[in-house]
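Q: Start with the shorter request: fold the first protein.
A: Done. Sequence, then structure:
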Amino acid sequence: MAKPKPVVTEYRNYYLPPSFPVFMLTGDYWRLSDVMSPRLHFHNCLEIGICHSDYGVMKFYGHETPFREGDVTVVPRNVPHTTCSAKGTASLWSYMMIDPKALFSGLLPATWKNYDLLSYGFSNFRYMLNREYYPNVYQKAMMIIEEMKAARPGYQLVIKGLLFSLYVEIYRIESSETPDSLETNSSAPPSPSGIMPALDYIENNYMQQFSIEDLADMCHWSPTHFRRVFHEMMGISPLDYLINTRVMKSCSLLCNSSRSILEISGMVGFQSVSSYNRHFSEIMQESPREYRKRSAEENEFAENLSVLQYSGWMYPEKLSPGQENANTGKKPAGQD
């Protein structure tokens, strides 16, 4: 009997400017394919998605959850997922990538420890919020999208206020012990709570030196069991995840500082610049020097920047001929 193919999981990093840590993906380009991706992916930030048309399924840790027009998705960082439209359709989406801790610094109550809305921090996390049951969430999300598109004077201040209102609304929903509707919770995917201590430690201490055994101890497992469960949940080994995190963190330094590549390699935790160069090239398909040069030549904040050109997406979907969008002539973005 043949072994099932392992699920490949990708780490997709977004650079969110410290002055306004928000990134939006919207427009007709974001019609998602009806071909289910063989890969799940996870982000380094909170993703809020809005389905504008059609229906389909999302996978969280390989567990399928249906979506339809009007749904708002809440996907915390480090949650492997993908989206697929129903056969013969191309659902239209908008996405907001945000860093709540940075964006709402000084606004959030000190008692709210789970700034990133990490799913394991809530007893009954809802990844999918339907417009019928949560109309305020949908309305606020749409207001943010329209404000972002218009980009009128002071729009960042307005968006920050709207995002804060939306964030508080979502936090209230996720903190509720009793689900508002059995339907909204009937397909809850499994929780990655067992490995979250390790994921959080890597996020906050990637620049330090520590062993896989140290991470296993944090999860109260043997190293062998920890490696197996981590790979099952994330589709990547703990060591590869740590290396990916370090490489992605270095991308921001390459783009936004004049520090040497040698300095940056040490700042993100690599013990030699040769090791850093090798891993960076393997993951990003170009050297740190080439990446820095290319990034300097691009306007990373241009509204027409395709996510398939965005440095955090390492392996964008390659679709078969005939799947181009009929209106734009572009290929759909694949699966989010």
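Q: Next, the second protein, separately.
A: Sequence, then structure:
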Amino acid sequence: MNIGCISLGCAKNGVDLEVMLHKLVVAGYDIVMDETYADVIIINTCGFIESAKRESIDHILDVAWLKEHGRLKGIVVTGCLAERYREQILDEMPEVDAIVGVGSLEHIVSAVEAAARGEKFSSFEDKEKADLGGDRVLTTPPYMAYLKIAEGCDNRCTYCAIPLIRGKMRSRTIEDIVAEAVDLERLGVKELNLIAQDTSRYGLDLYGTYKLADLVKAISKATSIPWIRLLYCYPDKITDDLIEEMATNPRLLSYMDLPIQHISDSILSAMNRHGDSAMIKDTIARLREKVPDVTLRTTAIVGFPGETDEDFEKLCHFIREVKFDRFGAFMYSPEEDTPAAEMPNQVDEQIKQNRYDILMTTQLAISEELQKSKVGQTLTVLCEGFDSENRIYVGRSAHDAPDVDGKVFFRVPKRMELEGVFVKVKITESLDYDLVGVYVETLDM
């Protein structure tokens, strides 16, 4: 049988799909990229916010068309939407044949077999007892991979349903993570992106203290992977040890994904964020003092219940003042079974949209300024391939995380096989979020 797959949502969810695909390959199934050739399709869903839920449902309905007009025999739904709305999906979406919760990845083969026979199947085992990690079939390019170091979350932000969906925080052991990093290096991985719902909290449940710096040291010692990147680090848990490691370890990229969500103390308190505006400012100051070339990425939520014009202006002022290198905003989405959904003073949708537009326009001007400052610099770029339509190579610098940040486009005097290769690129032009340059030389990394 041929198995197709669609993965939605975050990279953490994508790693789960890779674990499931490995189990299917071991069982003898073929993975196909073209959905029209699939006998069974797995839709790995996101259920984080309303727009993500709608996207997941739309994909299910789109794929259902293939059951009527193609060779498709069954649809399997996995991921966060499956975990959160298990009964509703089976009751209200007859197109779905099988549904697998986030704690039941080991049952994916049984789910696929049942779906192929046209039988209904569901499995929702205790997510907090499920194995962490596991062999994977990489769906990323061979030179880049995500490495999930923990599952679940204990932060209990009032707007977030992740603890309900994924359970409490569970860290993998350093030994287990390092062993997987070694395996990924053998597969050719040159960029390792460490992920968890709260990466900076890593190790607290196992070792009684934050262990992210020690984990990076262990990976660096056991492998020669050139680029190690940290994503999803919360500002209240950025230790001096971690900053020192970033300042002194040339393979730990000077890049920090640091979601702040807001800067108004009243909103941060209502969100149940750990720490206040002073803590956020102190963390940023410590990072920039010890790692002057650090690239800071953050996200913020606009329109949280009770957000006043004054609160929003504080956020805008902070964004203008700090000048984050990378920034994304979200309009608050009330999620059922979360405390924020029941809060008074819900913000009007049009006000949310207006604030979102203002914030992103503010950041665009900041981004343009920062991008222009890179013109004339020579950057190390990991080449991701050749854009045949525009006749130009494309890659990412150390300042650009995969999937969320910009690109570096560059010209080479003659066609070369550069995919997955580090090169030096001299920047000649800046765009809103991307850079353009010329190839200088190939690096042996």
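Q: Describe the second briefly.
A: The domain at 144-372 is CATH 3.80.30.20 (pyruvate-formate lyase- activating enzyme). The first helix runs from residue 11 to 26.
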